[in-house]
């Protein structure tokens, strides 16, 4: 059983949502380069 | 203060703000490009939050709560996939290229883009007709949902609820066009978010916290906290995919990428959209909590309205009500503007070759949105049985038809005209037939629809004539 009496597989849904948000931050700040061809 | 006083007051203030936005944006809508894509001048916050508001209709809030009530905490996975695929990855994978390609090809609709990318009038007409037909059906389901919400929460007869919401939407869409749609959706996203957060705080308090909720649910049935739990893998996964990956083919959401000011907007926009789509977790969570309080509701769709009435004070439940109405209105308005674009730009303009002056095009676009909205209203007032059946899979049919052509259109230079045409028709027919024969194995029609569409796109493209270097260079600019 994971946190808050939630089975780990069910709790992973919260983790996936959190990782998605963190990934969007990483992509926006470090990966995405609009560059000079920005129209 | 009693709810009979607060409900109408909150709702009237909210509707008055929408009308005001319609009037203000109407002054700034001067060209056809303004009317359909806001003159490509929309910033990150408005683009991202209006995307979220158009993504989650009242069907998601009320229906999502219903799923949470029926199947428990496993349904949180639907929302998690919404955030990952429908929010974050959709913005990262599609956003930059759709913005670049549609500007290079000077198109303002999805069928218009596909027509120029694949040099095919058939692709244009087919996609525009599918969008027109099934989006009207989708709109009917949204209006119907709003009518029932007014009925349950405010005890306003269904007909008046449908009429009230539709008239307000028609007013601001036909006056302000896309600008009115995104600005009202921006406001509506905040109302939805605040409403859902309020409901979650109070419902968690009512049940003694998330741990207590899980223990109580486990006592009712352990399947209510396990994954896949009572629903099973096929149903859970296919539903999560249709409402997440399906977004990649939905014109009313993809148009957000057309309208951004520049590519830098995508930086903040992607983060805001990812955080915003997290609000999808809340209806499912609240639906599961409702199961702790009410063991046998007449229908699962009553979970959110009933919980709202039980745990929130009148002002709070009025805000939740406004949030649910906001969710429906923002999606309906977004779809309406797409329908008007498909009819006037794709079918009448490019398809039938009717050249209209810019002033006439703008006027007819406004009239078209009002007429299409009125048709949706008439059907929603007394929906025929066939329409009710079709609403269940309108989203799946549209996504199965347009998803691969859009994705391959911006990522694979080898995608051909015939590959696109076969993928569209094959995806459409497969999704339709699969749903018509009653969803074998509990799998949603979207899944076989996109599998067949993918195979046809790749195989047919490999064996049919490629586009000229010149055409590819024009699109890719390299």
In short:
The complex is a heterodimer of chains A (39) and B (478). With 39 residues, chain A is an all-alpha fold. Chain A has one helix spanning 8-31.
Structural summary, described in words:
The complex is a heterodimer of chains A (39) and B (478). With 39 residues, chain A is an all-alpha fold. Chain A is 62% helix and 0% strand. Chain A has one helix at residues 8-31. Chain B has 478 residues and is mainly α. Chain B contains 21 helices and no strands. Classes of the chains: A mainly alpha (39), B mainly alpha (478). Chains A and B meet through helix 1 of A and helix 5, helix 9 and helix 12 of B.
Q: What is the level-2 CATH architecture name of chain B?
A: Up-down Bundle
Mean pLDDT across residues of chain B = 88
State the shape of chain B. Answer: globular
Largest interface pair: A-B, 26 and 43 residues
How would a textbook summarize the main sheet of chain A? none
Provide the residue-averaged pLDDT of chain A.
Answer: 89
Number of domains of chain B: 1
Spell out the CATH superfamily of chain B. Answer: Sodium/glucose cotransporter
């Amino acid at each position: 059983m994971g946190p808050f009496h939630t089975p780990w597989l069910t709790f992973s849904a919260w983790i996936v949502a959190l990782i998605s948000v963190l990934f969007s931050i990483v992509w926006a700040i470090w990966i995405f380069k609009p560059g000079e061809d920005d129209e | 203060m009693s709810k009979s006083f607060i409900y109408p007051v909150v709702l009237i203030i909210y509707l008055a703000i929408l009308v005001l936005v319609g009037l203000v944006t109407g002054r700034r809508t001067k060209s056809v490009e303004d009317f359909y894509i806001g003159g490509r001048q929309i910033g990150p916050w408005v683009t991202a939050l209006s995307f979220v508001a158009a993504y989650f209709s009242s069907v998601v809030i009320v229906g999502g709560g219903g799923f949470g009530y029926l199947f428990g905490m496993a349904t949180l996975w639907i929302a998690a996939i919404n955030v990952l695929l429908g929010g974050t990855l959709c913005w990262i994978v599609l956003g930059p290229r759709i913005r670049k390609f549609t500007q290079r090809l000077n198109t303002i609709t999805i069928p218009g883009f596909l027509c120029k990318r694949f040099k095919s009038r058939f692709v244009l007409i087919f996609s525009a007709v599918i969008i027109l037909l099934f989006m009207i059906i989708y709109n009917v389901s949204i209006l119907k949902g709003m009518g029932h919400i007014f009925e349950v929460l405010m005890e306003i007869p269904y007909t008046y609820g449908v009429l009230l919401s539709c008239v307000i939407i028609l007013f601001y869409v036909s006056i302000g066009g896309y600008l009115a749609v995104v600005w009202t959706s921006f406001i509506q996203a905040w109302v939805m978010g605040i409403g859902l957060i309020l409901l979650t705080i109070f419902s968690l308090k009512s049940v003694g916290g998330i741990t207590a909720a899980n223990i109580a649910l486990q006592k009712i049935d352990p399947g209510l906290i396990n994954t896949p739990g009572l629903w099973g893998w096929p149903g859970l996964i296919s539903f999560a995919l249709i409402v997440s990956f399906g977004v990649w083919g939905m014109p009313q959401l993809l148009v957000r990428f057309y309208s951004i000011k520049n590519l830098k907007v995508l930086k903040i926009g992607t983060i805001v959209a990812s955080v915003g789509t997290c609000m999808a977790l809340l209806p499912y969570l609240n639906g599961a909590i409702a199961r702790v309080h009410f063991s046998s509701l007449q229908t699962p769709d009553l979970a959110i309205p009933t919980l709202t009435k039980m745990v929130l004070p009148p002002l709070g439940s009025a805000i939740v009500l406004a949030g649910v109405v906001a969710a429906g209105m923002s999606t309906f308005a977004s779809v309406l503007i797409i329908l008007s674009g498909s009819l006037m730009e794709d079918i009448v303009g490019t398809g039938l070759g009717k050249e209209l002056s810019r002033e006439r095009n703008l006027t007819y676009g406004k009239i078209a949105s009002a007429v299409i909205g009125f048709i949706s209203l008439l059907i929603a007032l007394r929906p025929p049985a066939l329409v009710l059946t079709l609403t269940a899979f309108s989203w799946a049919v549209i996504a199965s038809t347009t998803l691969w052509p859009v994705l391959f259109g911006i990522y694979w230079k080898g995608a051909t005209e015939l590959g696109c045409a076969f993928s569209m028709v094959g995806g459409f027919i497969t999704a339709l037939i699969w749903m018509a024969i009653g969803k074998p194995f509990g799998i949603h029609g979207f899944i076989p629809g996109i599998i067949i569409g993918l195979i046809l796109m790749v195989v047919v493209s490999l064996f049919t004539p490629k586009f000229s270097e010149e055409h590819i260079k024009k699109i890719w600019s390299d």
